[in-house]
Design brief:
The complex is a heterotrimer of chains A (119), B (336) and C (155). By secondary structure, chain B is α/β, with parallel strands linked by helices. Chain B contains ten helices and 15 strands. Chain C has one domain. Chains A and C meet through helix 1, helix 2, helix 4, helix 5 and helix 6 of A and helix 2, helix 3, helix 5, helix 6 and helix 8 of C.
Chain lengths: 119, 336, 155
């Protein structure tokens, strides 16, 4: 098991990096840009084999930031390619992340139905 | 032959200065807690104002403010001859829908946050031109309707930058008549759209300051007035950042002696209210004018006021396309 | 003397103005922002690790525990957005509450909830993907491309 302080440290550092990107670059960077950047960045690093070591030492500190979601997509795709070949490239990513994506959409919908924006 | 009532490049003067015989203002909960909370006619308890949606609340704010301004003079909607109003929303829905219920002949105006000055100056022209005798000029904005149209959903966790401004939930309406008691509109300057290539949608002040400075400078040179002619020059809603820049621009433009100057966006809130650079939105300058400023004119604390509302004329579409932010400012001289 | 052409003149003017703006415009309080982002982001991940460790302790296998954890964190993000707490956190924590998967849930719920009054199909239904759409799109595209590269390399 990954020690809790390592999850805190790695997770905190990944968020700190996001903060630096927001504060030190163009003012037009929105949370949407950050999320897209992290998921793509995580997926690419994972493809290069650089994200897995981070998950080993950081645990949830590396998987909970959205870059971890990108990592999961890539790993799913790569594993499925090993088993199924070409088709795996298309099915593997979503299969590996299906629970998260569905949860996000369904909980998102439920929260929207149950609550009203307070402003 | 130059036009009879035009002076210089952009300024009009009035033979029979229209009188501001009555006015009303309404402010949201946050604005009510600000330093001028006592000066507004009505403070909303919540942002829905008894309606189902924020858009409907904004429509009601405008309606009630117009009615209140008329009622103070013992008029009702049927007595008003024309309404000039605007807001920030697409297709001016708040104003159009308010006019639907008010039943007053209506012209909708869009000048972003400069709308109050725009509606006042057109109203003044219509009264001085002897077309109408009871004209209502109004503007309103609602924080959450503007936020969801121009920025982010209200429940999204967004860190605001220090230069960003808080769209005010407020409305103001003024009744103009050719005769009566009250302060008078003596001159107006119609602004040009100025764009200094500012692109930061979180910093309207920097985008609008050059427009304000340009209109003010032109106003003084058109009328040949000394820069200390007015007791107070108040810009629409430049906020702290824009106000600091405007002061620099006054010096550059040679406005000597330095005018007594403030900004509605800075005035509307206390520093502790987490609004960063200050207030914005049509309602910001509208409620500061129709609340504290005109009261101070009645009490004689201010006798000559130059009201310069400023507007940033961008849309989310042009922002996404990387366009810079054009801005405008109109000046309205109000004197006792 | 030659009069400068108007376009060049405008460029000089806007550059001068830009330098004035940069002098006046307040800089973000970088240290404060970074400390907030680090601590809040770290705590969210620590909470996730606690959940994960608990699940592993219950004997659930690692891949499944990881998925469960993500689902629980998404639920928390959605719930806290619904009751109006997550946006208050986001005002202070910045990237600390955007980067974790709870921030992804926040963006989804905030976009969907805001447009409830415009109806459930083209209001909630369409807007729910305002931020989630582009995020998932780029994730999918990169993952598929990497998969295709692997297919290509191994053939």
């Amino acid at each position: 098991m990954v020690p809790l302080y390592m999850a805190f440290l790695i997770g905190g550092l990944l968020c700190l990096l996001g903060q630096l990107i927001m504060d030190l670059t163009k003012a037009s960077i929105t949370p949407g840009h950050i999320l897209v950047g992290y998921i793509s960045g995580g997926a690419i690093l994972s493809g290069l084999g650089l994200y897995e070591p981070l998950v080993k030492i950081g645990g949830a500190g590396a998987t909970i930031p959205l870059s971890g979601f990108g990592h999961l997509l890539t790993q799913g795709s790569l594993k499925a390619v090993e088993q199924k070949g070409l088709l795996g490239a298309f099915s593997g990513g979503v299969e590996a992340t299906a629970a998260g994506i569905t949860a996000a959409v369904v909980f998102g919908y439920l929260a929207a139905v149950l609550f009203n924006p307070k402003g | 032959m130059p036009a009879k009532k035009k002076r210089g490049a952009q300024t009009l003067v009035f033979d029979k200065p229209p009188v501001l015989t009555s006015w009303a203002s309404i402010a949201g909960p946050k604005e009510g807690q600000g330093p001028w909370g006592q000066e507004f006619d009505w403070i909303m308890e919540d942002y829905l104002f008894g309606e189902e949606s924020w858009e409907k609340a904004e429509n009601k704010m405008l309606r009630e403010t117009v009615k209140k301004a008329l009622n103070k003079r013992n008029f009702d909607e049927a007595d008003a001859e024309i309404l000039m109003a605007g807001d920030l929303l697409n297709q001016l829905v708040s104003s159009n829908y308010a006019a639907r219920q008010l039943g007053i002949p209506f012209l909708g105006l869009y000048g972003a946050c400069s709308t109050m000055a725009e509606s006042l100056l057109v109203a003044a022209i219509l009264v001085d031109g002897e077309y109408f005798e009871r004209v209502v000029a109004a503007a309103c904005s609602h924080h959450y309707t503007a936020e969801r149209q121009f920025r982010f959903p209200t429940e999204q966790g967004i860190q605001k930058t220090l230069s960003s401004q808080w769209t005010a939930t407020a409305a103001g309406a003024v009744l103009l008549e050719p005769v009566g008691t009250g302060p008078r509109i003596t001159a107006v300057s119609i602004g040009k759209v100025i764009d200094m290539d500012q692109k930061d949608a979180n910093d309207m002040g920097s985008a609008m300051a050059p427009a304000a400075a340009h209109t003010i400078k032109t106003h003084f040179s058109d009328l040949n007035r000394p820069s200390d002619y007015y007791d107070l020059i108040v810009t629409g809603d430049l906020g702290k950042v824009g106000m600091a820049i405007a002061q620099q621009l006054f010096i550059r433009d040679g406005l000597q002696p330095e005018p007594n100057y403030s900004d509605c966006g800075v005035l509307l809130y206390d520093a502790i209210q987490e609004v960063n650079a200050g207030g914005s939105g049509c309602g910001c300058s509208a409620c500061v004018l129709c609340g504290p400023l005109l009261k101070k004119m009645i009490s004689g604390e201010i006798n000559k006021l130059l009201f310069v509302a400023t507007g940033a004329l961008m849309s989310p579409v042009t922002s996404f396309q990387g366009e810079s932010i054009p801005a405008i400012a109109h000046a309205v001289a109000i004197e006792n | 003397m030659k009069t400068p052409d108007p376009q060049r003149w405008k460029k000089i003017e806007t550059e001068e103005y830009e330098s004035l703006v940069q002098q006046v415009k307040p800089k973000p309080p970088l240290l404060k922002h970074c400390v907030w982002a680090f601590i809040v982001g770290g705590l969210i991940c620590l909470l996730a690790q606690l959940i994960m460790n608990y699940l592993l302790y219950q004997g659930i296998d690692k891949v499944e525990a990881s998925s469960y954890t993500a689902v629980v964190m998404i639920f928390l993000g959605a719930f806290l957005t619904g009751i109006g707490i997550y946006d208050e956190l986001g005002k202070r924590a910045g990237a600390g509450s955007i980067v974790p998967i709870t921030g992804f849930a926040n963006a989804i719920v905030a976009s969907a909830m805001e447009f409830k009054r415009e109806g459930y199909i083209f209001g909630v239904g369409a807007r729910i993907f305002t931020v989630a759409g582009p995020t998932l799109l780029f994730g999918f595209v990169v993952a598929v491309l990497i998969g295709l590269i692997k297919v290509f390399l191994s053939s």
